[in-house]
Design goal:
By secondary structure, the chain is α+β, with helices and mostly antiparallel strands. The protein has 18 helices and 18 strands.
Length: 596
Amino acid sequence: MKITSQFLREKYLDFFKQRGHAVIQSASLIPENDPSVLFTTAGMHPLIPYLMGQKHPCGTRLTDVQKCVRTGDIEEVGDDSHLTFFEMLGNWSLGDYFNRQSIQWSYQFLTDPAYLGLDVNRLSVTVFAGDDDAPRDEDSAQTWQQCGIPADRIYYLPKKNNWWIAGTTGPCGPDTEIFWDTGKPACGEHCDPSCDCGKYLEIWNNVFMQFNRQADGTYLPLVQKNVDTGMGLERTVCVLNGYKSVYDIDLFERALQTIQQLSGKNYGADAKTTRAMRIIADHVRTATFLLGDPVGVVPSNVDQGYVLRRLIRRAVRMANSLDMPKGSIVQIAQVYVDVYKDVYPELTDNRAKIVDELVKEEEKFSKTLVAGEKEFFKVISHIPGNVVPGGTAFKLYDTFGFPVEMTVELAAENGYQVDVEGFRQKFAEHQAKSHAGSEQRFKGGMAEGGGVEITRLHTATHLLQAALRRVLGDEVKQKGSNITTERLRFDFSFGRPMTADEIAETERLVNWAIESDLPITCEEMPLDDARKTGAIGLFGDKYGQVVKVYTMGNFSKEICGGPHANSTGELGHFVITKEQSSGSGVRRIKAELHSK
């Protein structure tokens, strides 16, 4: 029997719902108020305030299917297991049960014939080996043995393998990871789940959060012990069906059929063709979800937009290598909208935007792709050795719109390397104040010890949105935000640039609200009741049917789960530093809070 993705989603959520977990909605792919990452890379990102001790409106046991994007292994995409977009099945205990109960439920869900019914003889687990910061996790190892995993398939691994933290500071702790034996031969005498030989495929990770890592590297006990688990949907469906590759599962079936029809080539015909088709299938899927996200991203040269642009352009280049006609990636995106329409209706809602942005980006890139590749081959025919100079890589970026990663990839395909450090130096000289293109550009933030600043700036975004709606009208709706310890960035729907008078009046209204020292109150209520009171909120559906409503006098009322000041008078003086476009029909404001 073929196991579908929807079957696994429903089985997982039902299993934990029966065990007292509230089912919550997937959060946006664009993290709110977490400057340490560009994308939601795990289910725990939207829950950081609750892992730190805040009360969640839905209780202490939660479960969901979270959309995630990770691009750190983008060069590996095209193999059997790597993806840039994936769905993460997760369940959490917020100060409720801990490691023993978590492990017992994981084992039951995986091996019980009523659920997944996996062969226990093909399961192995890893646990934390211990170090100066935390002890060896004998408790988890003993629990696994009691469940039925023999000692010779329980591996003790160091912190780099079995310790989980999002970033460099914040909630963290030892984890236990569950692996499926793919049947491939061992790579040697010491082959274990830490190998990259392909014998072991990780399918579930249970994190036992009990520490809060400080900026100075010390570990303090968390106010409450938490459990944070994650099971990769695509990899698990692959395992359940006995497939060799994640690209064999149902979610990619129609997309790969479309790619074959458009290219006239057969998937699996040879390694190069297969890799190209997988890259197209993966990157277009990720681009579709980023463009269709409720917050939304559009291609650009900075931050999330840079990563999106890189994914689209890489897909276009691969499509060209397969002689696919212009507009092919749009057709593939349309397939994904249909495949996911029942699970993620926001893709259907944003179908027109997805199509429009992909058409524009392909058109823009196609004009320079041929010329850029021609220039690349011209350059390498004249350089001594096999290293493309950094200045040349920068020229390809600056003149032809080639991300340096694409130049590196093109060079590797032709037996060359690229002086990436030299590129970075040229880039820094050209745009000293910009950090475009670095997926790790954000430092600091709520998870980095900047909690007070983040709290003040997050509170200010509420006042800013309320002021904008007073000045520009109720058509203003939040489209996204990002906060560092120095500034806030707020994207909102509006069809034209603001005038100088409108900017000044917005700033004045926010400062009036701050100077009035309005009390900030929080109430928990059903979502429908919150809406009836006039509360607004971009993320209104992600917290379940009970939500937190923050009210600031008569000035602002929003559904929100972020950190807030006690009163507006704590914020300081609000200054708008920039108002600019952030895409079609979306404006962006950057602002700071100064001491009075």
